[in-house]
Structure prediction request, 88 residues.
Amino acid sequence: MDVATITALGALLASPVMAAAAIYGSRGAARATREGGALTGFNSLTDQLQEERLEMRAELATLRSDLAAEKAENSRLRLLVTQLGGTP
Prediction:
């Protein structure tokens, strides 16, 4: 066999191997893109949940403060009623 024949056969044999490698590589890239999108979505959801949690904690602190003020007012009024001779 001469050099031209060997080169032609090498090119013919290398083409299917290169095509298979390209297909396999594109599948891997598509999988990585999907997984990256899922990870980005998960991170975004986690951030949103953490923000909501902080807002809820602030609201809970406000409500607890309001409740404590109401209890103090209730106790003050009960004491006043008792001092005036009534029964609370």
Remarks:
- The longest helix spans residues 3-83.
- The chain has a mean pLDDT of 82.
